[in-house]
Amino acid sequence: MPVRLPPPNPAEIFPVPGIQIGIAQAGVKRADKDDLTVFLLDSETVVGGVFTKNRFKAAPVQICESILNAPGGANVRALVINTGNANAGTGDSGLSNARLICAELAKLLSLNPNQILPFSTGVIMEPLPFEKIIKALPAAVKAASSDVWAQAAHSIMTTDTVAKAFSQRVSLGAASLTITGIAKGAGMIHPNMATMLGYLATDAQIAPELMKPLALELANSSFNRITVDGDTSTNDSFVVMATNKAAHAPITSWSTEDGQILLKALKRVSVQLAQAIVRDAEGATKFITLNIKGGQTLEECKKVALAIAHSPLVKTAFFASDPNLGRILAAVGYAGIEDLDQSRIELYLDDVHVATSGSRHPHYKEEDGQRVMKQEEILVTVDLGRGGAEDTFWTCDLSHEYVSINADYRS
Amino acid sequence: MPVRLPPPNPAEIFPVPGIQIGIAQAGVKRADKDDLTVFLLDSETVVGGVFTKNRFKAAPVQICESILNAPGGANVRALVINTGNANAGTGDSGLSNARLICAELAKLLSLNPNQILPFSTGVIMEPLPFEKIIKALPAAVKAASSDVWAQAAHSIMTTDTVAKAFSQRVSLGAASLTITGIAKGAGMIHPNMATMLGYLATDAQIAPELMKPLALELANSSFNRITVDGDTSTNDSFVVMATNKAAHAPITSWSTEDGQILLKALKRVSVQLAQAIVRDAEGATKFITLNIKGGQTLEECKKVALAIAHSPLVKTAFFASDPNLGRILAAVGYAGIEDLDQSRIELYLDDVHVATSGSRHPHYKEEDGQRVMKQEEILVTVDLGRGGAEDTFWTCDLSHEYVSINADYRS
Description:
2 copies of one chain form a homodimer. The first copy, chain A, is an alpha+beta fold. Chain A folds into 2 domains: 10-279, L-amino peptidase D-ALA esterase/amidase (4-Layer Sandwich), CATH 3.60.70; 287-407, ArgJ beta chain, C-terminal domain (Ubiquitin-like (UB roll)). Chain A is 31% helix and 24% strand. In chain A, the strands form 3 sheets. A 6-stranded mixed β-sheet of chain A has the order 13-12-11-14-10-15. Chain A has a 5-stranded mixed β-sheet with strand order 3-9-8-7-6, sandwiched between helices. The longest helix of chain A is centred in the middle third of the chain and has 23 residues, at 257-279. Chains A and B meet through helix 2, helix 8, helix 9, strand 13 and helix 11 of A and helix 2, helix 8, helix 9, strand 13 and helix 11 of B.
């Protein structure tokens, strides 16, 4: 598979009964760009979300959290998403600007403002041009249609080069359910890179109390494998919506057979979205899967994966297709496992056994490492030789293009 | 001051009585390069060292630590340093290769092998061509001279673009002491970048038991402010030598007046060396001082400084002279201070007050930020508004050149 995926085929991105999406041009940053997206949710929809752990939470994130965590529960009926400005580092005026937008949309839809979740992505610490957004809201609402998910995947993009949308159908008994998700994010080669927004919807019937833990579990199995708790942008948000339209027995536990089938399908789409973000990472030329095994705990595996994934030295070696694999061993060494025994480490590049007992494998040949490093997809396996824990993460390389994109982002 | 310093003027780098240095060409990686450096220490010299905390310690680091930590103390009389190969990730054969070199040098100098500290820097996980080094040892010993510190600063370089050497004279009563140091390292824009080697010598009389804590204290006030504990290369080493040749009352405590004078001078040279490494960082175009104040603890200040210093997004913004200062606030937000109150954060670029109470300062003008960002030296001040702790770190930007250097390092 090439690193970059082709854009989604709209014919394969299915509408989700109970959800309409409207897109408009507010001119937040520049004219002639779809930069305003509104989700309209039918009244039985239940919603769960997970948000950035950054202490600098953007204004819209603060509002989303207060709505979804309200005692008595939320009754969310719409989402409003703008690109071009993150409304982060904007203090009290940022909060009131976001609230003005929600209030205006509530008026248009005859809702209460606390039934609307706002999202923003773009430049940090500049005032949100809320008047432009408010002015474009009626057009977005008027344009609302059920079959524009692929376009919505476009309209939430910032530095993304390709839209990210995936759909899946799944049968529960006689009922056929739809799961459709879109996401944006392209700077995720380091967890602090850029805002990730993800929206996953299904017409399944799911008990409201399952939605928050569901959002958390899906994020942990997908987006949190390309990023890390506490190390996220000011605006990262992932929202799961279930419209309760499908004709099947409601899911009230994930441990039932139906629950397992549905959860697996939801995870699959979440992982597709997360991997699509890595594949579209700024300047990425390689898609790298890190399989860390032999840890005493999952936490150890994660530390090692992230030390490798965040090392600019390792990432530039992947970019250069240079099997300078000592850089990976060095990253394992400083990952923070205090009692790590370097003489137990095994390292593989795909099927090539590079290092054994912590040093170069006697049969390792540079040309074998080189062959794997030249691929667009590379599996790095590290066996820590300490226990039975194993985990998988996804990352990419660091290229000239990355520096260009981030040096020029605002110009 | 421009980011890159001029090469040291040999006339200003003073010999240290009691130390001779020999340089030779072993052809470790390529011919026609000075890649072997030997320090010969007079018999009263006392030595202290600090070494990488990476769990993957290079073979020479393991040997240095075992010699310096030996019960009964060490009696170090020589150092041997090669570039071109790090002898890291090389397992038992790496250890025995380094020991063969020490044994050969011991034979040449009529010493015991455990009186010799070995150091290597260069590519990781490739076998050390120890025969080449052993073959060149006699030439290095024969060339030994007291007045070649500036040349030695050259001969320990790898990807450095400029040699790093500083000298200072200091008077203790009637005695005039010399302090001279050299260092190499150019990849330190992130702590895991590349090997740092530092050698600091004085003819002062210092009690042997003070040397290990001295090395630690000097490293903490200099090299550890451009790097971080536990996040270092496989080979990082810093060695302090006192030849005990000068005619003054021996220093037996740092709290005496003489102790304070000497310690201050030693720190000054250490900081000059550390800052020279940042100034020569791979691809660096800006020298950035991070002053973090208002923390509850020094540890908090360090977390914030390192989050800023390690953010590729912040670093590329400095490279582009783009006052995209929200990226700094975002880094503060994910630095790991759980109860951080974003509404108390103040941010300054030099004297420009950029953010107040966690959001854009009402009088901040983009052209003022732009003016500072265009400078080659930039002071970033973050006030956390939580307490009285304050600390300073040094870093640089992330440029195209950095990617080129690290992508091409071995080719």
